[in-house]
Specification:
Length: 188
């Protein structure tokens, strides 16, 4: 029997025995059909190519268990369908169509708001730098380094009540400086 007349089932039997040439023959016979099927299922040629190749790897793995209850082409398409559905399920969260993407509200600040925030942040930093050392270091540790009141007390080796008092006066001075510079207390 020549390779051209050998049945798909006989080729699967050869694959089950480890015959790589049989896999190549089945690939040549069925790859285009599997590829087109997956491309229609997924809408992606790249995905179809990957899945079609995986189908033939799966053929190599599962050939010993093939029972011949269906045609080989049907079996291969079943494997392809399962792999395509699995991949689509995994990718579903990542995929979004253009209309859905356009409907997602843009929460980013406008260029005007970004500029206002940058200006206010720069002014605030200048005002912090102008504070007396005892107030500046408390603000710096709290807001720029995320330290709690008790942690600031430990770093500076001062009581927590002193940290709170310095924080109160530092905030008050910053608020007054912002107001005098024409900035409101909110952000931006």
């Amino acid at each position: 029997m020549t390779a051209a007349t050998e049945t798909d089932r006989a080729l699967v039997d050869r694959v089950a025995q480890g015959d790589r040439a049989a896999v190549r023959l089945l690939f040549m016979r069925h790859h285009a059909r599997v590829y087109r099927f997956v491309a229609r299922q997924t809408g992606s040629e790249m995905m179809a190519d990957d899945i079609a190749n995986e189908v033939f790897l799966e053929l190599w793995r599962q050939a010993p268990g093939f029972e011949g209850r269906s045609e080989v082409s049907t079996w291969l398409l079943g494997i392809a369908r399962f792999k395509a559905l699995s991949l689509l399920r995994k990718k579903k969260e990542d995929w979004i169509d253009d209309e859905a993407a356009a409907a997602v509200p843009d929460g980013a600040d406008t260029p005007e708001v970004v500029t206002m925030k940058e200006d206010k942040a720069a002014a605030l930093r200048r005002f912090v730098d102008a504070l007396p050392e005892e107030h500046r270091v408390v603000i710096d540790l709290a807001y720029y380094h995320g330290q709690s009141v008790s942690e600031i007390g430990a770093v500076l080796d001062i009581p927590v009540a002193t940290v709170k008092t310095r924080m109160f006066y530092a905030r008050k001075k910053l608020g007054e400086a912002l107001k005098a510079a024409g900035y409101d207390r909110g952000w931006p």
